[in-house]
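Supplementary Note 3. Input sequence used for the single-chain structure prediction.
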Amino acid sequence: MKKRSLLLIPTLLVASALSACGNKESENAKIIRENKDLTVEQLVEKAKAETGNFTVYSTSSKTDKNVKAFAEKYKLSGTFSAVKQSESEFYTGIDTLIAAGSKEIDAVVTQNGASLSNELADGSLINYLPKGMEKSDNYAFMYYLKSFAISKASTETFTNVWDLIDTKTTVQFKKSSEPINQLFMAELTTDTWSKKLGDAYEAKYGSGKLNAALKEGKYKNAGWMFMDKFLTRVINIKSEGDEAKNCANATSPFVTFSPISKYSLGEAGNYNKVNFLDSMQGFRGYAYKFYYQISKTTDRPFTAMLYANYISNAEGIASWTSEGNGIYSATDANINTLLKDCVIENFNDVKKDWASIVAKLESYVG
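The predicted structure, written as discrete structure tokens, is reproduced below.
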């Protein structure tokens, strides 16, 4: 298997080889292109005529339940399942099976779909957008929201993102082996978010203080300064899920950063035991994307297209997990409001400076 470095993994929004660029178009790519405007009702009929099993390779453990709910809804024949794999196993499986022409993989769900596709032979994965979706090189069907949180046992208030740096309370952040967080930090260095961080800095420390601080630290902008000061002071963690549980039940409160979905819902859930720091000036949280693509070797192309439509609506998301608990469909009419003031994953924003950003990020891990 090819070795993936920090430079390769977060190429996840680089223009990738999702279609047959310069190569002969695969049979399934042609089928999908010629039928891209079919309605859901038309796709259902065509999917029912297909036979064989339907398997989705995924980096998420929630996919299997979702695939089975999809089959039940449309009364489709065959065995429907998802294969959960770690990122390294996922790459190995895709590289080996699709490249060899295996029909075992029908589709993939991943947080690193474009990165994966960029390293595969052209056309191995096919990008299909459900009818009515905005044109995109990489179809993202869902957003996961990450947020800072602290136990309700704490009386400390955080009104500004720079409070995360000045606080005497322990702040946790997964710095290593977490491409999503690396992209989050990188996005903060863009002009848009640097301006917001700069405004937040002056709101906290006083008008006119920013330029002096940038000059003193030799920072390119407020985003680079925040990234440096934040990553210097935070404690690296191994598992965001474990620390979300620990945060909720901590007798000595600390701040941690994880997907909101890591906090269980319900009256006794951990969700009710923390305060989410989502009202700070600067940014509210970080929204990253889940991608879906179809294998060029699938023997159920219409089923794969139908599944893309299913996971793109509220019902499909609900059978994945509890929508609203920091998980949102990309087709939600209120998505812009739901993600207002959130930093949103977009590698295209940072690819120009990515090499220098990666070098800086790597210096904080150890």
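The radius of gyration is 22 Å. Confidence is low (pLDDT under 50) at residues 1-22.
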